[in-house]
Design brief:
By secondary structure, the protein is an alpha/beta fold. Helices cover 43% and strands 15% of the residues. It starts with a strand and ends in a 7-residue tail after the last helix. The protein binds pyridoxal-5'-phosphate.
């Protein structure tokens, strides 16, 4: 792998196949050459999202996809509910407030995920809520919500379930159709092995009916316009041609390496290795509902998280993330999303041992790397 490796929950490292696709010449988006590329991309998105629903491509980062969903489903004065457990889930509330949507937030312990019981209570207390906003993996803490159970609760109501799966789609099991999730939002730069710059939003028939009847004022980010164009096999505005080509290359790679299920298993396996390595150094996981998307590790007393992060980056070329908001300075967030090989994980663990030594800790040489290596064997499913 490259000398500088991203162990961050987005952006992530790109495989050579995707880098090559990004270098291809531009074709015109309203041309016979682009039509089959875009058709393939639409099919590939439905494959990744595990859905037969249309998946809208948008040119923006993940947050733009969240904003498109909120503003296409809800008009000023409409009611909604959201679970808040960190920087990203709070964003649902911030977006709604910016547009005069009356969103009621339910804050939970940041080390936990949202549960069906909580969502049931939210809807009981706000029966006029037209939308329930949730976050599959809250990237602030690495916590995972029970989307399957939540979807079961919401599907029996008139409300539309919207899931921010920006960090988790492609890394954690998410069954859009089998679980009955109305709207799923993801971003290009996390587990999908693409650069930053696109969001993708799937829309169920129930959500589409809500969008069609919504007195929304959204223009460019209108899912209504995007869905109408998608029915015609195109986009309302200029398509992100380069990224569409690269998306097909990335999904080809996923298909060639055992499919979406194998990708989930690879993320689980890498997460186990990172946890095992960190635990030998006395780091413990912050989340009590941990995901395989990002591990939020709390350093032992006397070890400074910020210094660990700087040392990994400056001395070894490994980028990991720090804490945000109330977790700032308290945790180290390590993700192994998308394209990362075993060797990079073992090198990261060796570097982490060294970073502990820099802070005066005696660490038996190779202890974290050996634990990670044990967790990595037997070798992965075809890749
Ligand atoms: C990264 C992330 C976002 C925000 O995405 P941007 O691409 O930075 O706009 C939103 N939600 C979650 C859970 C994320 O991990």
């Amino acid at each position: 792998m490259a000398k500088h490796v991203l162990f961050t929950p987005g952006p992530t490292n790109l495989p050579p196949e995707v880098l090559e696709a990004l270098a291809r010449p531009i074709v015109h988006h309203r041309s016979p050459e682009f039509a089959p590329i875009f058709k393939q991309a639409r099919e590939n998105l439905r494959y990744l999202f595990r859905t037969e629903n249309p998946v809208v491509p948008l040119i923006c980062s993940g947050t733009g996809g969240m904003e498109a969903a909120a503003t296409s489903l809800l008009a000023r004065g409409d009611q909604a509910v959201y679970v808040s457990a960190g920087k990203f889930s709070q964003r649902w509330g911030a977006i709604c407030r910016a547009y005069g949507i009356d969103a009621h937030g339910y804050e939970i312990d940041w080390s936990l995920g949202a549960t069906p019981d909580l969502v049931q209570r939210m809807l009981r207390e706000h029966p006029a809520a037209k939308v329930v906003f949730t976050t599959h993996c809250e990237t602030t803490s690495g916590s995972l919500s029970d989307i399957e159970g939540i979807a079961r609760v919401v599907s029996g109501t008139n409300a539309v379930l919207v899931v921010d799966a920006i960090s988790s789609l492609g890394a954690e099991p998410l069954e859009t159709d089998a679980w009955g999730v109305d709207v799923v939002v993801t971003g290009s730069q996390k587990a999908l092995m693409l650069p930053p710059g696109m969001a993708f939003v799937s829309v169920s028939p129930k959500a589409r009916a809500r969008i069609e009847s919504c007195d929304s004022t959204v223009f460019y980010f209108s899912l209504k316009k995007a869905l109408a164009s998608l029915d015609e096999g195109t986009t309302p505005w200029t398509s992100q041609i380069t990224m569409t080509v690269a998306l097909n290359a990335a999904v080809d790679l996923v298909r060639r390496t055992g499919g979406v299920e194998a990708a989930w298993l690879r993320h689980a396996r890498r997460a186990r290795a990172i946890r095992a390595g960190c635990e030998t150094l006395g780091m413990c996981e912050y989340s009590r509902a941990p995901s395989n998307v990002v591990m939020a590790m709390v350093p032992p007393d006397g070890i400074d998280a910020g210094r660990l992060i700087r040392c990994l980056r400056d001395e070894f070329g490994f980028t990991v993330a720090g804490g945000q908001e109330r977790l700032k300075g308290r945790i180290v967030r390590i993700a192994a999303l998308g394209h990362i090989d075993d060797e990079a994980i073992l090198s990261l663990m060796t570097a982490l041992e060294e970073a502990f030594r820099h802070q005066g800790r005696e660490v038996e040489p190779g202890v974290a790397a050996a634990a990670a290596k044990r967790a990595l064997s037997p070798p992965p499913t075809p890749a």
